[in-house]
Design goal:
two-stranded parallel sheet, 4 strands, 93 residues, 3 helices, alpha/beta, single chain, 29% helix
């Protein structure tokens, strides 16, 4: 989230999402950390097209599925696992 290389490449981090309520208390931070349940609405309102996955391998596929279902079109995966786009992703326009 604080990696400066994204900014140099023109990637602006809008928000982070976490399942741990202790981490989501920073809603008013420069980069807010929001509950994962708010992902779909945030993506829609802010027209997010690209997401970043930085979670343990056991959670990565589920997070990808949620991101695709929310309307995200591309993903940078930093989880230590190969992911597969859900079949529904092929019908997203």
């Amino acid at each position: 989230m604080k990696y400066k290389g994204f900014e140099k490449e023109g990637i602006r981090i809008e928000a982070c999402f976490d399942i741990d309520p202790a981490n989501t208390i920073r809603k008013r931070a420069i980069i807010p950390i929001l509950p994962l349940e708010e992902l779909r609405a945030f993506v829609k309102v802010h027209k997010v097209k690209i997401g970043i996955i930085a979670v343990p391998d056991i959670a990565a596929q589920h997070v990808l599925d949620l991101m695709i279902a929310a309307g995200i079109k591309g993903v940078l995966n930093f989880a230590p696992i190969r992911l597969k786009a859900p079949k529904a992703a092929s019908s997203i326009t």
